[in-house]
# Entry
Amino acid sequence: MASRGWITGTGAVSPLGRGSAEFYRRLLAGETAVRPMTPEERSGLQAVDVARCDGFSPQPEIPPMKARRFDRGSQFAIVSCLEAVREAGFDIASAPEELGIAMGTGSAGAGALTEFLRVLFLESPEAAPPFHFPNTVANAPASQVSIELKLFGPNVTITQKDPSALNAVLYAVLALESGRARAMLAGAVDEWNAIYALGFDRVGALRGEKRRSGIVQGEGGFAILVETEVSARARGARPLARLAGFGIAGVPTDPYRFAPDPVAIGRTIRGALADAGVGPADVGLWLPSRNGVEEMDRAESDVMREIFGEPPRSLLVKLAIGEAASSGGGQLVAATRAIADPDGPFPSDGRPRRALVNSFGAGGNFLAAVVESVPEAAA
# Structure
C-alpha cells in the first residue's frame, strides 16, 4: 500500500513531561497530569481540575532574552518542533523552501491577547506591551516556528477545536502529495488561559462540582515531522511509522457542544480504515477520543464494539493530559512512539502493527487516522 507519508521525528511539551520519550514513558506507566486547580486558577469557576505544563522552561532551546518575545504557546511549539526536527535528522538549511508547517490550535494567542487588551483598556494604548502584539493571533506559534527554524515552505494554522491536530496532519499530507513540500512539521499547540477557562466553564464544557460530564482543560505542544518516502529514503532516514489513512465526517451542532452521533463516528472510523486499505482485525492499538464527555465516550465505545467486536488495547491520552486541540497531537505522538517501540506499549501483546487515532470535537467535527509501522524491508 502506498504511504501517505513517513513520520521520522516527534516532539512534545506536555503536562506529562518535556520531550516525546518522557511523555510516552509516563503515559505507559499510567500517570496522569490532571490535578486540582489552585485557588488562583479556579477563581470563579465550578471546574475543579486542570492539566498544565507545570514548571515548563523554554531553556535551553530558546535563550532567556529571546524567550521573552514569545507567548507560552509559541514557546511550546518551538521546543516541540525543534525536537521533531532533531530526531528526524532533517537538515533544514539544505532546502528550507521544501519544509513547511501545519499547526492546529484552539487557544493559541489567548494569553498574549488578554494581557495586551487588559493593559490597553485599564491603563493606556501607550502602555500596551508591543512584544505581545505579534503573538495575539492563532497563527503566532506556527509563524514563530517558521521564523526561528527558517522554514520557507507552506505555513498554515487550523483552528477546528479538538480535532485540529489531525486536521493539520491531513493538510500536511496533502501538501506532500501535491508537491508543495517534501517534508512538513505537523501537530498542535494550546496554552491554558484563565479567561478562556471562564468561557469554557460558562458554556458548560468543563467537568466540575456542578457537572459530572465534561472535559478537563489541558495545554501543551506536540509535533511530528512527516515527509515523503522519496525524501526520507534519499537522505537515509529511518521511519518511526507512516501515515496510512484518514477518515473525516461532520454533523451540525452548537459550537461548544459535542454530537454523539454514531453514524458520523462510524463513517469516520470506517473511512480511515478504508483509506488505509485495512480491516478492523489489522489494528492492534486504539487511541480513543475519550475525554470525559460521557455521551461522546459512550457513543465512541459502542461504535468501536460494533465495528471491531472486541476493540484493540487502548492508550487513554486525553484522560492523562486533558482535552485541547493539542491533545490530538499528543495522540499522534503516542501512536508513533508505540509503533516504533520495539517492545510495544503492552509487552504481553507484542508490538502493534497499526494504531487507530480518533479525535472527535465540539462543533460536530470527527477525524480519525491510521498510523502503521514500516516493514524492515521497505525501510
